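Why show two proteins at once? Because comparison is the fastest way to build intuition. When a single record is shown, students tend to memorize it. When two are placed side by side, the eye starts asking what differs. So, the first record is below.
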Amino acid sequence: MKKFIEANKSYFLSSIVFTLVFLLILFIYRLDLVISIYGIVLYYAISLPIVVYRYSKYNLVIKTLNNLKDNSFEEDYNNIKFENNQLERSYYNLYLNRNKQLLEEKERNNKLYKEQNEYLTMWVHQVKTPISTISLISEREENNEVKMELLRINEYIDQMINYMKFENLSQDYVFRNVSLKKIINNSIKKYKLLFFKKKLFVDVNIDEVDILTDEKWLSYVIQQIIFNGIKYTEKGGIKIYNEENNPYILHIKDTGIGIPENDLQNITKWGYTGENGRLDKNSTGIGLYLVDKVLNKFKYSYKIHSEVGKGTDFIINLKRREIIKN
């Protein structure tokens, strides 16, 4: 309201001047007081709708200009009307021209994003064929070294595929009751060669409990956490268990190098690798970013406790804050 008054100072000042002049005439000519008050009240009664109208128009102009400042997009700008004066018409034309540029830029970016997505999708499908062939050869020759490298390659390819899919995640999940123990066991089985290679133990103590979830995406989350645990653990291993009093609270706890305190608040940001990432040149900073996005999308809260030199405990509450079942 204060800014509105400042923007319409001339209008309010003229009203005050008019009132003072009217009162001065009343005093000089000794006019009837009742008639004079009636005239003033009538003037302000007529002025009030005008002030309300100007205030609503003012708010619309401010909102419109804020949209421009925030790079917001609207499909139909013709519905936005400015006051009918030269200054605000100039602002309006500036607004329309700027938003036209923004919409053209958005269209170019969308086209570029679509082309990149199509190329990456094609590349992934093309590279999967030779990888499958190498995998068959390694199975035949029982070459564990090749198998482990293939596992890592597949891990990073799957990470990229899931990153590409995440924009349309709502089209790619189905909720149903799934055994948590089954998801954990399948995830561990996937990395058995890495556990064996690094001589790490895996201790699983999971009560039989069904989780209302999308099996594929929850499996991806758990696999990412286990894979990170293996990657940054040289001695000891990984313990996976749910709490006795609340089986929906899942712990994935490793005895690895731990995460520095100053990195904990940033490790789920896109592309952030932190101090540990500098130790592993292949770190992408995308894995935990996707873990965070999927858990938030599915309304699963989580915490990460970590101590440098002692390990990390990733805790997930699998009791959804909102239950949605297809």
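Second record. Ask yourself what differs from the first in the token line.
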Amino acid sequence: MAKKVWIFSLVLLILAGCASAYGEDTVTKKPESEASEELTEKAAAEDRNPVPETEKAEEGRETEGQDGDYVTEGTENYRDFVVDSVLHSREFGDIHYCVFIPDEYDGSRACSLYVTLPGYQGLYFQGAAMNIRTEEFGFEAQNYREDMIILAPQLEDWAETSARKTIALTEYFLEHYKIDREQVYISEYSGGGETLSLVLESRPELYTAALICSSQWDGGYRAVTEAKTPVYFVTGESDEYYGSEPLERAYREIRSLYEAEGLSEAEIRSLVVLDIKPGVYFTEKGVTNQHGGGAGLFGRDREIMGWLFDKHEPKDRKEG
């Protein structure tokens, strides 16, 4: 009897060992199988959408500047603008922008450069390309010059940091593209005017002419008058956000400095213009909000945009 019990116990031990062995196999094989499936799915997904390589291929062509700055080109387009390219600046960090480069541009002939700064709704935190999706300046400018690169920075604010980034981006394009230095134009809308005034306080000589729409002037005035950079101010008489007084004051300050230099009336008028639009300018076009409506109306106004481009082109172009 004892022998039978011993044999029965031995059999149970053997069976338990086998079960344990198969159990271990099952446990180890299950993760291997799942891992294999995950790797297969991951590989298939990468084959369908190889993000890193695609981005490097499309965003590549990283052009490095003399100071180590370089650009990562955007991969999407909106109305012929390349969206969300980034200038990686060693000094100022990432500078996001959209850019239109004419198909005909090949670097063999100098072209114009136009920089358009956005209002609050077009700052980068609002979303990539919200500047060109909400303002028409960059598209309307194409009606004035066929051979013009159009640069639309997406900045963080309307203070010193954005002003320095605007200057850095302008200088990068002047260095890496064949640009006629006498045809570098800049404009803005709303909060972008505060940025632009700081840009002109710092580096007015970079720009051929400047257009300030529905905004205020935060910078100094003397650098602009010393550089003789022409400035056009335009706003509604009852602008709901800024009013007209800030630009009227800026105009008076710049004009007084030119008067103190002894410039003639004709010379002053060629260098600074104040254009206060009456209410009817807006209402006859079906616009009830002067501040918000200016973003579209001023960009489509040939007198305003024409001042920026047509009156400040080289004589040989006019004669040709």
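One difference worth noting in the second protein: Confidence is low (pLDDT under 50) at residues 1-60, 315-320.
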